[in-house]
């Protein structure tokens, strides 16, 4: 039987080229040959691909919602019901001001740590038990909102690009979670 995973990139599609954009999800979909396309039923973009990880077959769905990050929980819940079904099969990629730029930290369960997108997901799913890959963007000295909505520096875009070293780290974590 083929295992299923749903990879979600939290971000605001209305703010391109900022820290609030799911670059790593787009890059990973590109790397694995999955083409995201609009799906009105789940209010976002979705793609699927089949891949073997250590000789085990997986179907990986990629999803990003049209909804703003802070209210992304309900559409992500709909995408989860359509694809992987179990919250434990959900891997959310999101920005983290608690981690320095280009750092990657994996987490399962726990609180939202002040992240409104994660808070919305926990509320919609009714559980904290899903995987998170926190992509570091660093903490500004002031004006967090202005910082996360500011233009993503070129070195960070290159780091999370399809051929960037950050994407290798993301893929390694996804494989660990999958197995």
TrEMBL record:
Keywords annotated in UniProt: Hydrolase, RNA-binding, tRNA-binding
Keyword Manganese: no
Molecular function terms, GO-annotated: peptidyl-tRNA hydrolase activity; tRNA binding
E.C. code: 3.1.1.29
One Pfam family of this chain: Pept_tRNA_hydro
PANTHER family for this protein: PEPTIDYL-TRNA HYDROLASE
NCBIfam families for the chain: pth
Similarity comment text for this entry: Belongs to the PTH family.
Record protein name field: peptidyl-tRNA hydrolase
